[in-house]
Amino acid sequence: MYQARAYSAASATSPLKSDSIKRRATTDTDVQIEILFCGVCHSDLHTVRDEWAAFMPTVYPVVPGHEIVGRVTAVGAAVTGHKPGDVVGVGCLVDSDHTCPACQADMEQFCPEGVFTYNAPDKHLGGVTLGGYSESIVVDERFVLRVPTNLDLAGVAPLLCAGITSYSPMRHWGVKSGMKVGVVGLGGLGHMGVKFARAFGAHVVVFTTSPAKKEDALRLGAHEVVNSRKSDEMAAHAGTFNFILDTVSAQHDINAYLNLLTMDGNLTLIGAPNEPLPVSAFALLFGRRSLSGSLIGGIAETQEMLDFCGEHDITADVEVIPIQQINEAYERMLKSDVKYRFSIDMASLKNE
Ligand code: NAP
Ligand code: ZN
For residue 245, what are the β-bridge partners? Predict the structure, then answer.
């Protein structure tokens, strides 16, 4: 066991601040990683402020961060897939039982024994797992991903959550050329959704509450941009979408989007507002439309997504910040003022 510098929050109303945390000694199957960049996900904010108390109450002190890119510093004797010096990634998952039907199907994110990177029971040290707002982490090699060598690392970090979370449902629902795809909310997940939908060949429409993001949306790959607060702009697209990816982090009217689907069209929720979203039966009955959800992605699919990004030169558009600006970054994220992901340069922790 060793001590590592990190940023933690002591309660739902406390700011994140410098701390020293315990990391386990590297076991035979572990990889020890020096963290270079960690993306800032809205889930980090939900968790720090205990907004998901009804589903996943936060245990304090909490160290968030599940968009981790770093360099391997040590490996256990049995590790074969990684070696010191390799650049690797860790996302939202650090363990699972490897035997349940979900694990057998390469969907460890649905394993009943799945362990999230932070705020999940830690079988090694007790307490809960502590995430990537830290200088180092120790992770079972099966949850450590290979990072393509041609990509900018600050922009790779967000692929480990925002990337896979938008990639996986588009693959599942078969997004491809000839389809009209909507992306609701142009934040961290949304801007990755735009990039992937475009790379898969779809006609891409962004729905935003921030009209000032229009030029960026087009630059990121959208063909059209709709101001979702304007009912006439929404109505012009009624019944035309094959697939809509909803990334919104707060309460909003999903019926307005269900009504934009074609026959058999699907709307997948990946945003995770804490309050229930009312659904109109009629919005689903007409056209046999469906509403579903999706949670990150399995490890094999995450590797597939990273390799796809390497081949297509896809990374997140990031604003790199020192860890000392994390509390201000959270406030900006709440105001939808993030272009389009904060990525923490973890070298800044050395100043603490
Ligand atoms: P984000 O960067 O803050 O983006 C969310 C976007 O939603 C905002 O930029 C804004 O886009 C829009 N928005 C925010 N408040 C809104 C409101 N009241 N009404 C309408 N639109 C609003 O957040 P993120 O990191 O992308 O995460 C989005 C959500 O996904 C969070 O709830 C997060 O916890 C969840 N999440 C889920 C998974 C999963 O596995 N399913 C994984 C990661 C994150 P515009 O300015 O364009 O309107
Ligand atoms: Zn996330």
Answer: 183, 268
